[in-house]
Structure prediction request, 163 residues.
Amino acid sequence: MVLAMKAAALVFTLASLVPAAAVAQPAANAIPESCKSVATPPPSAIIPMPGLVANISLAYCGAAQRFAALKLTNDDASMKALMDAAKPSFDLLDSVIAANDPVATETAKRLRSSLLVGMAVRMRLTIPSITPETVGPHLAELMKAHDDLEPKIKPWLDAAATK
Prediction:
């Protein structure tokens, strides 16, 4: 028991010696103004965790800002625009995952999956809803649009399920 306590104390001491600056931080000009409050670890941080959490928070906030600015339609250009908008967030999440912190890594993986599912949902929402009044050729057109879209978003949904 004493040995376990000494080992835990040693691990904590070594972890506290790793400066928070060791966590990759994005350039200040890459942070949307509305995300700055969540993207900055406290200056008093002496362990990496606050920096990892800040990166996860910035990944979420930045994606939300960039996604909201998009005017999506049911086409490949919109899918590319979503991927381009998500890339900075995925890069941040990859940096968190690379830090190999068990809690932060799991959180980053879950957020990556959530972003991918959200992207698929956004693309699905570019197709008008089918209602009880949707009949005939218009119904066939909407069904075809959905049938054409699903294979395109499947890689996102598959990646979300495996991360």
About this structure: The two ends are 37 Å apart (CA to CA). Residues 1-21 have pLDDT under 50 and may be disordered.
